[in-house]
Amino acid sequence: MIVNNRVKSVSFIIISILILLSVILSFLTNPVSPTPWVLIAALCMMPLIKQKHIKQIKWSKEYSIGIEYIDQDHKKLLHLLNQFSIAFDYAQCEEFEREALEELVSYTKYHFKREEKLMEDYGYPGLAEHQEEHQAMIDKVEEYVAIYNIEGHDSLKQVTNLLTYWLINHIQESDTQYRDYLVELGADEFDV
Ligand SMILES: [Fe+2]
Ligand SMILES: [Fe+2]
């Protein structure tokens, strides 16, 4: 996988350099020709083409819990997940990849704690079950991080898929379950 991703990144750089060289050559050989301008436009499009291949998750109103700081947490988690997908897909620097993964895991844990505290404060009856779900997720991610520490980049595809699938499902199915209960008790009127 890392080979595939690195090959993609190197190919992208080579194509960009070739286009740039063609632009210079076109300007030198025929300065009035429209060709270099077409090539410049193609060069400008390159980052957009690359970006399009990376799966990015957009925030949607249907993910909203109605409690501002929890929605902000969820937005940040999606942002960190997107950053991680970019780091994984570009596969150019292990440090960048590891940093993005660590930030995502650490913010996920931080968010879980905040959410559990909120449920506890309002006496939500489904707290224990929700906590178990969070813990199962943390255990799974930590297991993958341990595998990543041994196998490196190759194992990360599973983490991306797991986190994307789990996070969206958890927000839509489990987090929305406490929403009505907490909003009815006025939890949406307070911020932290
Ligand atoms: Fe959540
Ligand atoms: Fe949750």
UniProtKB/TrEMBL annotation:
Where is the chain membrane-spanning?
A: 12-28
Name this polypeptide is given:
Hemerythrin family protein
What organism does the UniProt record list as the source?
Colwellia psychrerythraea (strain 34H / ATCC BAA-681) (Vibrio psychroerythus)
Record-linked InterPro entries? GGDEF_dom, Haemerythrin_Fe_BS, Hemerythrin, Hemerythrin-like, Hemerythrin-like_sf, Hemerythrin_metal-bd
Tell me yes or no: is Calcium among this UniProt entry's keywords.
no
Query: What family is it from?
Result: Belongs to the hemerythrin family.
State the taxonomy lineage.
Bacteria, Pseudomonadati, Pseudomonadota, Gammaproteobacteria, Alteromonadales
Segments forming domain GGDEF: 132-192
Note the CDD domains from the entry: Hemerythrin
Under Pfam families, the record lists:
Hemerythrin
One GO molecular function term of this record is: metal ion binding
Q: Tell me which PANTHER family the record gives.
A: BACTERIOHEMERYTHRIN
- Highest taxon of the lineage: Bacteria
Q: Does the keyword Transmembrane helix apply?
A: yes
What UniProt keywords apply to this chain's record, in alphabetical order? Iron, Membrane, Metal-binding, Oxygen transport, Transmembrane, Transmembrane helix, Transport
